[in-house]
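Researcher: I'm preparing a figure for a lab meeting and need a structural model of a single chain. I don't have an experimental structure, so a prediction will have to do for now. The sequence is pasted below. Please return the structure as tokens so I can convert it later.
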Amino acid sequence: MGAVHVWAHRVDMAAAPAVFLGTAELGGVRPDVAAAFGAEGEQAGWQLTAPGLAPGIYEVTAYFWSTRAERFEDARTVRITVH
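Model: Understood. Here is the structure written out token by token.
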């Protein structure tokens, strides 16, 4: 993994623009991943401190850039509510 870009898409408001939350910081320690996949997975974690979002319901998507393939290869989405 070479980078993680994170976007928020508001789903409770029609035509709301997507918001780029930022590029995640890579290299977080993940002993659970290392236990499942070996020592090479130990630093598979990432984190992002994002700017505040207006209250609403969002789908937050993390896009994973592969340095091997030189493209975004995967994405994961979670739905959150901001109060």
